[in-house]
Design a protein that fits this description.
The protein is mostly beta strands and 235 residues long. It has 1 helix and 15 strands. It has a single domain, classed as Jelly Rolls (Sandwich), CATH 2.60.120.690.
Length: 235
């Protein structure tokens, strides 16, 4: 084939290829959750630790982590097999893209950490800050207490509001054989619970209820207070 013809064919091929590239636009990122069905797009990741047989220390640290294509939106914990309610649950907080819990007790127990992980698109722009206050324009999804103090998981977008639901709880462990008691607060329809706690007693478990419809705690101790759930809407 003459060299001029080969050159012409090559030029035509390159031109067609470049034209095709110029017409190709990046595919839009497909959403993996929708505002009306956020709860169904959240996966609970868990991790467990327990005191080893013969251990001289009852301190435990456990972290549940979201996958790389997920974003942390909250977390909780469950301490089981605790003698009476002798748990020193010192820290429970967001860390990186997961949830860390630290505890101590006077005997063998099991400690589970839970991370609530939203499939990744669209991004909420989540980030963790020191203290209780998020930057202007952000909404606090979860608070926790780490070794260095209070930390807060903030969302920069797609979270439109937060409200608090409460329910009463009265603890009387000495009167019922030092058993723990449970109670839960239910969020209004159209919102989901990502964080919560109780104002009384020693908390042995603090977790979202089914479908993130509310927040449940298990606690031991004495006195009256409330269980609360922080309830969120998305857009």
């Amino acid at each position: 084939m003459p060299s001029r013809m080969r050159l012409a064919i090559l030029c035509i091929t390159v031109t067609v290829f470049m034209s095709a590239c110029a017409l190709t636009t990046p595919a839009a990122v497909r959403p993996t959750w929708a505002p009306e069905s956020v709860a169904s797009a959240i996966t609970t990741r868990s991790a467990e630790a327990q005191v080893a047989s013969g251990s001289q220390s009852y301190k435990l640290t456990v972290t549940a982590s979201c996958h790389a294509d997920e974003q942390l939106v909250g977390g909780g914990f469950d301490a089981s097999s605790v003698f009476e309610y002798a748990l020193v649950q010192s820290t429970s907080y967001p860390a990186n893209n997961g949830w860390t819990v630290k505890g101590d007790s006077i005997s063998h127990y099991v400690l589970d950490a839970y991370a609530y992980c939203l499939r990744g698109e669209p991004s909420l722009g989540t980030h963790i800050v020191s203290g209780e206050t998020c930057p202007a324009g952000n909404i606090a999804l979860s608070h926790g207490t780490a070794d260095q103090g209070i930390v807060t998981l903030c969302a920069a977008r797609h979270v439109t509001s937060m409200s608090r639901a409460t329910a009463p709880i009265t603890l009387s462990s000495r009167e019922n054989g030092y058993l723990s008691q449970s109670a839960h607060a239910v969020c209004p329809a159209g919102t989901i619970a990502l964080n919560g706690d109780t104002t009384v007693g020693v908390t042995l478990a603090s977790t979202a209820t089914d479908a993130f419809a509310g927040w449940e705690i298990i606690a031991g101790g004495e006195g009256s207070g409330e269980v609360y759930a922080n309830c969120f809407t998305f857009a």
